[in-house]
Amino acid sequence: MKFYLFFILLIAADDQTVASLEKNYEDTIIPYMVYLKSRPPFCMGTLILSQWVITAAHCNTPSEIRLGVLQPNVKEKRQQVRNCSVSIKHPHFNLENLDNNLMLIKLNKPANLNKHVGTVALAIVPSESKRCFVPGWIWTQLNNSTDPDILSWVTHDIIPDEECTKMLPEKMSENKMCVGYYDDFIPPCQEISAVPAICDGRIHGILTISYGCVLQGSGGLFTKIHKYRQWIQNVTSSF
C-alpha cells in the first residue's frame, strides 16, 4: 500500500514560499531531520555527525530518537531508532531571553547513513545567501499531544540584523538572526520546535523564538550556528 503526503500550496508573499506538493511518501527525503520523542515541548533535531544531533536547549532530553522519519506518527522500516547517550546544553544558556539556546545530543550508537538518513554541514561563516530552507513537522489539529503527522517546509528570507533588532529589541542579540517576517495573516498552527534554517547547503540556525507559525509562512528568531562552531567541535570531540 502506498502512502501519500499532502501539503497546502501557499505563496504568501515574494519573501516566502510554503512547500506544498503531493508526493509519494517513499520519495520524499530530508535525511538530516531527527524526531526527538519526549514530553512537551515537542522538538526536532538535526543530524550533524553520524552520532551527534543538534537542537535547542529549551527542549527536553528525548526518551527516543528516530531518524529517517517523514511522519512521526507513522513508523516505517526505513526509520532508525536510537537512545540518548548524553545531552549537553550550552553552559551559558539563558532561559529568560533564550540566548545560547543550543543543545547537543550524542546517540547511543552511530546512525547508519544512507539515502534516508544523512548529515548536514555546520555553518562556518554567516550565510551569503538571502534565503533559507526551513523544514519541520506540524499537526493537523491544534492542542494535540500525539506525534505530529505532517511534514512541512518553507523558504524564508534572512532579515538583516539591524532590522531584526528594531523588530525584536528585547530578544535580539548578536547570537541570533531573524529568518522571515511576522505575518498576522498566517493562521495559527501547532508546529514542532527547534526547526533548522538551512542556507547555502549548511545549517545556519536553530529556531529559538517563533512569531507566528514559521512552517506556514511566518518568521522566527534563530540561534546562529557559526557563532558556536568551536563549542560544537569541542563537545563532539570530547565525548
Automatic annotation (TrEMBL):
It holds the Pfam family Trypsin. GO terms for cellular component: extracellular region; secretory granule. InterPro entries: Peptidase_S1_PA (IPR009003), Peptidase_S1_PA_chymotrypsin (IPR043504), Peptidase_S1A (IPR001314), Trypsin_dom (IPR001254), TRYPSIN_HIS (IPR018114). Residues 31-237 form the Peptidase S1 domain. Residues 1-20 form the signal peptide. One of its GO terms (molecular function) is serine-type endopeptidase activity. It is found in: Secreted. It comes from the Eukaryota. This is Peptidase S1 domain-containing protein. It comes from Sarcophilus harrisii. The lineage of its organism: Eukaryota, Metazoa, Chordata, Craniata, Vertebrata. The gene is LOC100930984.
